[in-house]
Design brief:
Number of domains: 1
Helix content: 40-55%
Distance between the termini: 27 Å
Structural class: alpha/beta
Low-confidence stretches: none
Radius of gyration: 18 Å
Mean pLDDT: 93
Order of helices and strands: HEEEHEHEHEHEHEHEHHEH
Strand order of the largest sheet: 8-7-6-5-4-3-10-9
Bound molecules: 9-methylguanine
CATH superfamily: Dihydropteroate synthase-like
Shape: globular
Largest sheet: 8 strands, parallel
Length: 283
């Protein structure tokens, strides 16, 4: 392997993510209301079918989450979260050729899903829960560290910044230091500005505009804006009418160098990414 290849290839369990390209990560929520069409088997089957459809549409990662991060969402116990997430991780690993990302802050969920075939830990709390740094280190998997202040329940209570991009960068650099001390090297880290987490519309827009500044941290960026209220507030659209705004932001994020786009609308976003790649590879 050449040194350039080793810089762009991120081992994710038994698969490898080629960071020379922009990837689309499909969102798979496995909270009780996501697939509420009957018994346990049919919910699992519906979740697998949804994951499969996203893979066929071009997703190279599926982000499986069992705890809602929406403000006001009910907290779930580690056991409850594990019972939601573990069976679908095991099933996707068996049935589909895709990198499984697990959206969790819970040490036990990190350890068990890694054993069942997960390839990436996506933690909106940046491994700040007790035991999370050690659990993530023990898995050997890459980790996505996301910026958020406070907890999902209180994060939108008057967030304040002098310079949002600088402060997000400082937060992520500090979390990378904590990871290094816990035995998670920089090469295993993906960074995420955390759009919609403890930020007003103006904070989100400014952070998006200046996102390139985060490249100085030297790690790939993941961006998640799909259907979020920053689109709703900027365009005055309800959640069902945010696709076009989301695709505009996906295109902009890709051009600004984001390597992973976390989205609900996989097929549409894959077209955006492919179109940009076609132009960029032209003479
Ligand atoms: C779980 N989740 C919800 N929004 C997210 C975002 O913007 N980034 C990441 N990494 N995870 C998210």
């Amino acid at each position: 392997m050449t040194s350039v290849q080793s810089l762009t290839r991120l081992p994710c369990g038994n698969r490898v993510l080629d960071l020379a390209q922009t990837h689309v990560m499909g969102i798979l929520n496995v909270t009780p209301d996501s697939f509420s069409d009957g018994g346990r088997y049919s919910q699992l089957d519906a979740a697998l079918r949804h994951a499969e459809a996203m893979v066929l549409a071009g997703a190279t990662l599926i982000d499986v989450g069992g705890e809602s991060t929406r403000p006001g969402a009910r907290a779930v116990s580690p056991l409850e979260e594990l019972e939601r997430v573990a069976p679908i991780v095991e099933l996707i690993n068996r049935e589909l050729d895709v990198i499984i990302s697990v959206d969790t802050s819970t040490p036990a969920v990190m350890r068990e899903t890694a054993r069942l075939g997960a390839g990436l830990i996506n933690d909106v709390r940046s491994l700040r829960r007790d035991g999370a740094l050690d659990a993530a280190a023990a898995t050997g998997l890459p980790v996505c560290l996301m910026h958020m202040l406070g907890e999902p329940g209180d994060m939108q209570d008057n967030p304040q910044y002098q310079d949002v991009t600088r402060e997000v960068g400082e937060f992520l650099a500090e979390r990378m230091d904590q990871c290094a001390q816990a035995g998670i090297p920089a090469e295993r880290i993906i960074l995420d500005p955390g759009f919609g987490f403890a930020k007003t519309l103006q904070h989100n827009l400014s952070l998006f505009k200046h996102m390139e500044a985060l490249h100085t941290l030297g790690r790939p960026l993941l961006v998640g804006v799909s259907r979020k209220s920053m689109i709703g507030h900027a365009l005055n659209r309800p959640v069902g009418e945010r696709l076009h705004g989301g695709l505009a932001l996906a295109a902009l994020a890709s051009v600004k160098g984001a390597r992973i786009l976390r989205v609900h609308d996989v097929a549409e976003t894959v077209d955006v990414v492919r179109m940009i790649a076609a132009v960029e590879s032209a003479e």
